[in-house]
Write a structure and sequence with these properties.
alpha/beta, Rossmann fold, Dihydrodipicolinate Reductase, domain 2, seven-stranded mixed β-sheet, six-stranded parallel β-sheet, 21% strand, globular
């Protein structure tokens, strides 16, 4: 059995980790930690877990509990994992960080976009960016995983085939994305109150959203050059889910058959579903699951391709992908613990 500890277990991402790991036949949740709910029963925070996880939350001094686990998930805000990780931690357990602390390789870029000083930059080069479908081989040998952001996961997986095949002009890339309110986390914010969000939609972080450099960096590795793009997220009145619509100019001479062939790179990927021609991705089709639905449409009038993707921000965009990374790291079936079908309602 893989013994698991979860830091930040009472946030939305942490709660999804618990939900899926309880179905994992090779996992035992040894402890859950919470700064806010230390010494309180987990099922008193989330009553739905009564008789499913009747543990008290421990504090965040995780070095006191490392001997009990094989892997630690950090479902915490930016900066927490970086302040905690050291050689002693990494020599004892594998770490999967759901925050952005190790996603961006350039320290100055991270500090500029996130507005905090990085507490352990010495581990950035070692950390593997855990986008499973692209970095699977590197993940296998890793002891520190930077779990990708929700917007970047959906954006990159939607666009990746055409960048990899060198079929689009990357300097024309525009990404329009929408997310449910859970993407902002569980802490109380006026902007996320029901009356503020309901029956409305708005753009935010226009030209400044901190997931921009993450998307650019990862697509830059694929393209083998610097990638600059426009990324505009929107808040929509739903609990969970992400929808991405991306636009780019096709290179001269690129045919529909070329684009179709490029997306065949996902033929052997279980969790990335390339939809049938003419079928557009919908958030409801991936709700509460680890699936990403992608598709594309070519506009011959403008010689542009529209790349589309939908996924659950809390699952493939956070907890589900983290568990998929754990499965790869420990040599397990990637699908183990993640076979819950999308919720209909």
């Amino acid at each position: 059995m893989i013994r698991v500890g979860i830091v930040g277990a009472t946030g939305y991402g942490g709660c999804e980790l618990v939900r899926f790991l309880l179905t994992h036949k090779d996992v035992e949740i040894k402890w859950v930690s919470s700064r806010t709910y230390t010494d309180q029963e987990y099922s008193s925070v989330y009553s739905s877990y009564f008789k499913l996880l009747d543990q008290k939350c421990v504090d965040e001094n995780i070095e006191d509990y490392l001997d009990d686990v094989d892997v630690v998930f950090f479902a915490t805000p930016q900066g927490v994992c970086a302040k905690t990780v050291n050689e002693n931690v990494l020599n004892k357990v594998k770490v999967i960080d759901l925050s952005a602390d190790y996603r961006i390789k350039d320290v100055a870029t991270y500090e500029a976009w996130y507005g905090i000083k990085h507490a352990s930059p010495q581990f950035i080069d070692e950390a593997v960016y855990g986008l499973c479908e692209i970095n699977r081989e590197k993940i296998k040998a890793a002891r520190l995983i930077a779990n990708p952001g929700c917007y970047p996961t959906c954006s990159i997986l939607s666009i990746y085939p055409l960048v990899k095949a060198n079929l689009i002009e990357t300097d024309t890339l525009i990404i329009d994305a929408k997310s449910g309110v859970s993407g902002a986390g569980r802490s109380a914010k006026v902007a996320n109150l029901y009356c503020e969000v309901n029956e409305s939609i708005k753009a935010y972080g226009v030209t400044t959203h901190r997931h921009t450099p993450e998307i650019e960096e990862q697509l830059g590795y694929v393209a083998n050059k610097t990638v600059l793009l426009n990324f505009t997220p929107h808040l929509v009145p739903m609990n969970r889910g992400i929808l991405v619509t991306a636009y780019a100019k096709l290179k001269p001479g690129v045919s529909k058959e070329d684009v179709e062939k490029a997306y065949q790179c996902y033929d052997d990927e279980y969790f990335v579903r390339v939809l049938k021609p003419g079928v557009v991705p919908e958030v409801r089709s991936v709700k509460a699951s680890n699936f990403v639905d992608v598709n594309y449409q070519i506009d011959p009038r403008t010689n542009r391709v529209i790349m589309m993707g939908a996924m659950d921000n809390l699952v493939k965009g956070a907890a589900g992908q983290a568990i998929q990374n754990m499965n790869i790291m420990f040599g397990l079936d990637e699908k183990e613990g993640l076979m819950l079908a999308p919720a209909i309602l």
